[in-house]
């Protein structure tokens, strides 16, 4: 049977039956009977869902599905509550533990009696619902009656989606060039450029592409991107602008009225050239306030507004240099190009439409109304289907019925209804975040797994299955992806898709949003997102069945809120308190027996309570950028733990080992055999070698970062790393810069390593590093190598990023012809003995970003062959000698020709431990600074 929303519930009951502890007489029989009843009902769901999706018999079928879903939620609550009552407290030892266990046995008998009684009541309700469904004319649909591909038929979703570029989403080169000219050329007066068009036409994509362009970044002193949307707070918008243009933090955080926020922002921008984007503006009053905060300073400043509302654009056009640009629907030729690229993306078709599908494809394309988002989304649906006339006609028929409603959102909803149920839940999960929220893929995987959305597959971890899920959503163009070097991936959804998510999440009680103490979406939901104050939230909700809680923009967080969660919401699986004003995690958190994900990042929490050891189901613990310095001994009891995040960087621009900070862990880390992520943990003080040996037990580790490594750990650490067959990311940081770490003992490095960061002194570059053919990012700091490392590294076939910081003590670096063929970004930092950098013709052919300095012995630009880097888009020069910088200036600099082709050139001078003064090429401020250096 194809899956339905009942499938996870049936699987949950099956798991309950397998467990020996739940086979007491009466309970097993009732659970099996309930599972059988759901399996009988499940075929009827397919017919009801089909009627709802096609809008036939909508009211009756939808109401019937709602009744089934309500009973399914009762069953899920019942099972989780039963497991809580059976297993909670059963791990405690000692006399009190034995006493509690005796009491627990009595409570267990009561729990088994209660579940049997509750199951009987649910079965009676289900029987009545099933009978009503038959009365509505519902019939059981067998497997094969749906055109959706089964899990076994679906192609690998990673094909064509892992390395998607932004220009594959929409072809907007001509429009972006025109917009760039508007930003950079023209009047010195401040001008407002309004991009107007219906949803899905590409306004945001066009604005984002130009905003992120290196030429635009270099042209303006200050940059800000603000997503406004329909619900907004004017004070918050002003604070976001102020924060992004880097107004001093104390001014931003002060409590004040709108006038008091406008005044310092206007004064700060008065002497600067700025570009500010207001994305998705719905109301006129945004501009009526913002125009007073953004001064007309005759510096060539620009403001971009994207809107669906013609009135918004009209109001913002106040003088002759303001522009209203209406985006037009795409021509058939442009639409066909995008459609084929998306629908026929695999190796067999290579973006070309088979002749037998051409007419049907054109018919489908005509229904997309020339809107790139609709084209990409519908083509994404087709890309998952068999390339047959039957499948194409089925999609066309569905589109025709939706098109008659003349509602783009309903057409886009087809892509949601086409999803199998396990992907629907994953897609709806974006509804717990606010619009335009960006989340890293690995964080998303952890949340999906914690919620139980990810189904285990043979030979794959749950995270790998979750990655498949996300890649399929990306392939269907439901989720947008921004990636850097193929490792760090940020996800978000389009605003139209977000509206579809909210609609369906509300109808099916998937999640609830509380803003200012007021509820939106469904009154009873499994997931709660709180925006603003938390006071009285639990009283407002009045629901102990919540599975997940997220806090956003909370300025006040009472201890009673967290205590109340621990006492009231005992079925909670996800608790995300990131960025909340929290300095103490109450011990009551230990009552959350079902908790699988606990995120405390960027809070003021200093210690974790010992009660955290009760969270036996915890999979993810995130204490990154908190004040936690040591994890309690009880952490080692959490044998289901998969991810521990504890990283932070105290001073990002401080070139020393002191800027790295992690957490201490007590002995016993080897018990956490499910660990896949461990960042950053300090080696056991005084028992470093034992710590290194204990790491051998972590055979599932994918990402590992260790601080305070000592020289004596070298051999043991190398032996452990050799056993980590699945390792993809490795960071090692030495305890101080005097010790030398020898890693040459590694003979068989992890083959899948993609990220390697070594913050340690080494006598020699290990010969296994050049064998890492999957390596994409290499970061070598404080190595102090005597031998030049480039000859060994130049052959790494997939290397995209390379940083050498105090890596080499020699006088010359030589990038040889044919070397570093895929490198995109190169940073050469604080190579104090360096005098010459040679770059052969044909070396670094794809390099786009170069950062270098300080090199105190390199006095003239003739010593650096920058002119060989034909693909360079961004150049940042750090604290180089005065003579070197002067030689590159456009007015009188004899070596300006070496860099005149680079779109963005900046000169950076460190002025404090965590910041730089940044100057543009040829600016009067830079020349004034150089003059002061001379004096």
From TrEMBL:
Q: Which residues form the Disease resistance protein winged helix domain?
A: 432-501
- Enumerate the spans annotated as Disease resistance N-terminal domain: 5-90
Biological process annotations from GO: defense response to other organism
Q: NB-ARC domain: which residues?
A: 174-347
Q: Which UniProt keywords apply?
A: Nucleotide-binding, Plant defense, Repeat
Q: Quote the SUPFAM superfamilies the UniProt record gives.
A: L domain-like (SSF52058), P-loop containing nucleoside triphosphate hydrolases (SSF52540)
Q: Which domain of life is it from?
A: Eukaryota
Would the keyword Repeat turn up in this protein's UniProt record? yes
What InterPro entries is this protein classified in? Apaf_helical (IPR042197), Disease_R_plants (IPR044974), LRR_dom_sf (IPR032675), LRR_R13L4/SHOC2-like (IPR055414), NB-ARC (IPR002182), P-loop_NTPase (IPR027417), RX-like_CC (IPR038005), Rx_N (IPR041118)
| GO molecular function list | ADP binding
Domain Disease resistance R13L4/SHOC-2-like LRR: from-to ranges? 546-877
Listed PANTHER family? DISEASE RESISTANCE PROTEIN RP, DISEASE RESISTANCE PROTEIN RPM1
Q: What is this protein called?
A: Disease resistance protein RPM1
